């Protein structure tokens, strides 16, 4: 028997990744005919369990016969070309390992749901002439013969016009368009079909819309932008990652655009990441003007079918050269990735919280670029402390600074207002200081626009009984309910539980229920009372749940159909409006009074970013910063735009307290419906961790700020690992301890998971 014959008779097996929270791959046998066609990254349908079938991704093809169990056969091969590229599988492996989750979790997050099934393309019924009438002579004879069938003749002429038959067509014509433009009934159309003149067929159409658009030339860079671009090029000669630290309104997007043009001219692709879907609306329009149909958009507000089409297009011979999107766009297939841009790199929105994988899109994008041999540009006006450290002290990144605003407009004037003193003197108008109210009146009189920032949505953070102090709380979570006046509901912002506001206190029967604190909804109410003629919009999670809601709100504000925009941190993230001269930060203290080691950094970033929305074109802008602590150093740092002073303070504190960027953090969470059991396991695990890692590296057991969510009690342990220690070894030790603990019958029903590099 020859070697060739021997190999042909070997059984072929595949190891697959299932879309389930399972760490292992599973082995299946492949029939001989399929074995010739299956490739790594292809989708296959496999049986799992007694009755279920799943769409799995082929990870490995081999001839190693599994032992100890009967191997099932693959049910179907869904395509012969891989749906997931080798670079993507490499990224999945890294994410599962680094973020300590199952590969099935990564698969679930990465791949649109439509690709986990046999995806059906969108089809329309289209119309064409039958073969007998595709010449001008035959048509002329037909039209002469139809003089008495006037409606049929008119509909046929409409088809000839829409299809451009006499202008070198035919163009595609849908049945719906034909009936609409021809003002005809289905009966008239059916008569033409029965007569053998027209016929219908199914035509696959794109859900992505018309990609054609008129493009313009790139805007030339000013001298400061050109200098920054040259420095980025120099940086990329020696390093793969560069941090662009540019003040607000310095024209970072124009620099990005020039880099994108250079990259696609080299035949490579670009990934442009944004932290919020709201930002894609403005930047899409700017990039479309330059790149037209070369640009694709990808984020979670798109339907699953649209996301599948983009995925498939990226696998085709004509992929988008530029992808603009939120964090999920790191998962798309890239065939020739040359550049990754992470705009507003400091944003915590890049971190996925739940479910697993709890990944950071910025850090994942860095790995994606490394796998593809691409360069990465991190851009922001307020760098994260970690990125600044990596660029200035660790030497991991290059650093380019751009400190001049576009057209050399001055940064806005920031006026701090002591609201604690004003309240003592009874000079506050609701939540508005006299100077803020005065400046708003002046801005509205001049036809200028205003942004008001309050980092809480809802009407009031809580409702309280004035007599006994009772506060309504969520029945599933350990938090008070937020009052939403518009719906007259008390809502949990963790699990979504809601209840109508009670008429009387259930504890003492009092009717004196009062709201405490204020959110964006309450600000909106007060503004409408103070300025009844002003056109007001509110941008928060409650008002922007759909893709179109974002777009309409931003478009209306751009076109000056809105005078005052009230918002949460959404309004701080890179939005660019020409006519905003005044920004009001209504209560800076809510950002500072937060139990987190990043609170100071985040407060600076939020205030500096929202301040940067003022005075981006023309005259210098003004920011009224209301706080009860005008003497805090951070207020002075924001006023002076002194990022470096802020970061120096933070680095010193974090080094002393063993926090990032000097240490890596892993949060370990334990959840269970039984509070005592959750606390018991957290204590046992913390004791084991101390034995292995040492007391100085383990903080806990502790309760998180919210210790019960969705009726599950939560225990938490914080593990700190030095930068020069092996994270791979630390992860291995953690997983070993987890396996040992779950062998204890008491703990088998507990949920245990990890949050690596929490934000």
What's a concise summary of this model?
The protein is α/β, with parallel strands linked by helices and 759 residues long.
Task: Provide a descriptive summary of the structure in words.
With 759 residues, the chain is an alpha/beta fold. The protein folds into 6 domains: 3-84, 3-Layer(aba) Sandwich (GIY-YIG endonuclease), CATH 3.40.1440; 123-204; 223-381, Rossmann fold, CATH 3.40.50.300; 413-456 and 522-653, P-loop containing nucleotide triphosphate hydrolases (Rossmann fold), CATH 3.40.50.300; 460-517, no CATH class; 663-756, Ribosomal protein S10 (Alpha-Beta Plaits). Helices cover 35% and strands 22% of the residues. It is built from 24 helices and 31 strands. A 7-stranded parallel beta sheet has the order 11-12-10-13-14-9-15, sandwiched between helices. β19 and β20 (489-491) form a beta hairpin. α20 runs parallel beside α21 (633-639). The chain is globular. Residues 1-8 have low confidence and may be disordered.
């Amino acid at each position: 028997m020859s070697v060739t014959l021997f190999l042909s008779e070997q059984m072929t097996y595949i190891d697959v990744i299932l879309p389930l929270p399972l760490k292992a791959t599973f082995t299946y046998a492949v029939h001989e005919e399929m074995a010739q066609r299956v490739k790594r990254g292809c989708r296959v349908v496999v049986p799992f369990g007694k009755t279920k079938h799943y769409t799995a991704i082929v990870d490995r093809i081999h001839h190693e016969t599994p032992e100890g169990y009967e191997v099932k056969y693959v049910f179907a091969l869904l395509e012969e070309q891989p749906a997931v590229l080798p670079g993507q599988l490499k990224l999945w492996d890294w994410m599962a390992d680094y973020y300590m989750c199952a590969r099935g979790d990564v698969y679930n997050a990465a791949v649109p749901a439509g690709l986990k099934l046999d995806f059906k393309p969108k089809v329309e019924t289209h119309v064409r002439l039958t073969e007998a009438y595709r010449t001008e002579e035959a048509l002329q004879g037909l039209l002469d013969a139809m003089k008495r069938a006037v409606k049929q003749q008119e509909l046929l002429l409409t088809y000839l016009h829409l299809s451009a038959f006499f202008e070198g067509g035919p163009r595609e014509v849908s049945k719906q368009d034909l009936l609409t433009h021809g003002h005809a009934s289905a009966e008239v159309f059916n008569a033409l079909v029965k007569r053998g003149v027209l016929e219908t067929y199914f035509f696959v159409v794109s859900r992505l819309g018309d990609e054609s658009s008129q493009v313009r030339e790139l805007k030339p860079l000013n001298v400061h932008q050109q200098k920054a671009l040259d420095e980025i090029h120099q940086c990329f000669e020696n390093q793969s990652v560069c941090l662009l630290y540019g003040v607000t309104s310095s024209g970072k997007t124009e620099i990005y655009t020039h880099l994108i043009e250079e990259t696609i001219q080299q035949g490579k692709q670009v990934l442009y990441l944004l932290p919020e879907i709201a930002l894609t609306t403005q930047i899409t329009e700017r990039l479309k003007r330059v790149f037209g149909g070369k640009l694709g958009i990808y984020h979670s507000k798109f339907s699953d079918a649209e996301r599948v089409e983009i995925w498939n297009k990226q696998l085709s011979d004509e992929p988008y050269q530029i992808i603009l999107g939120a964090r999920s766009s790191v998962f798309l297939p890239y065939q020739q990735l040359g550049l990754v841009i992470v705009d507003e790199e400091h944003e915590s929105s890049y971190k996925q919280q739940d479910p697993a994988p709890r990944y950071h899109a910025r850090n994942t994008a860095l790995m994606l670029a490394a796998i593809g041999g691409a360069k990465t540009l991190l851009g922001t006006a307020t760098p994260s402390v970690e990125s600044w450290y990596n660029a200035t002290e660790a030497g991991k990144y290059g650093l380019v600074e751009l400190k001049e605003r576009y057209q050399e407009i001055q940064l806005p004037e920031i006026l701090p207002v002591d609201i604690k003193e004003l309240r003592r003197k009874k000079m506050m108008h609701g939540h508005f200081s006299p100077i803020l109210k005065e400046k708003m009146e002046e801005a509205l009189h001049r036809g200028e626009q205003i942004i008001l920032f309050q980092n809480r949505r809802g009407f009031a953070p809580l409702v309280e009984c004035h007599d006994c102090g009772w506060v309504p709380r969520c029945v599933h979570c350990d938090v008070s309910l937020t009052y939403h006046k518009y719906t007259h509901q008390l809502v949990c912002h963790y699990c979504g539980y809601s209840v109508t506001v009670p008429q009387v206190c259930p504890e003492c029967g009092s009717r004196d229920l009062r709201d405490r604190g204020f959110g964006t909804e309450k600000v909106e109410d007060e503004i409408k009372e103070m300025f009844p003629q002003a056109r007001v919009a509110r941008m928060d999670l409650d008002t922007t749940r759909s893709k179109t809601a974002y777009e309409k709100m931003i478009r209306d504000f751009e076109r000056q159909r809105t005078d005052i925009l009230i918002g949460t941190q959404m309004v701080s993230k890179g939005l660019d409006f020409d006519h905003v001269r005044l920004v009001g930060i209504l209560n800076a203290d809510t950002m500072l009074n937060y139990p987190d080691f990043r609170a100071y950094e985040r407060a600076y970033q939020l205030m500096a970013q929202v301040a940067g929305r003022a005075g981006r074109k023309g005259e210098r802008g003004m920011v009224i910063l209301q706080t009860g602590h005008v003497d805090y150093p951070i207020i002075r740092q924001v006023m002076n735009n002194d990022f470096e002073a802020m970061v120096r303070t933070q680095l010193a504190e974090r080094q002393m307290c063993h926090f990032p960027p000097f240490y890596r953090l892993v949060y370990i969470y334990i959840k269970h419906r039984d509070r005592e059991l959750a606390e018991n396991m957290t204590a046992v695990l913390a004791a084991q961790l101390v034995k292995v890692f040492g007391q100085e590296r383990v903080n806990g057991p502790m309760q998180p700020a919210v210790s019960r969510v969705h009726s599950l009690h939560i225990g938490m342990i914080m593990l700190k690992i030095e930068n020069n220690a092996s994270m791979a070894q630390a992860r291995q030790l953690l997983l070993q301890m987890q396996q040992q603990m779950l062998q204890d019958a008491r703990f088998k029903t507990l949920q245990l998971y990890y949050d690596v590099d929490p934000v």
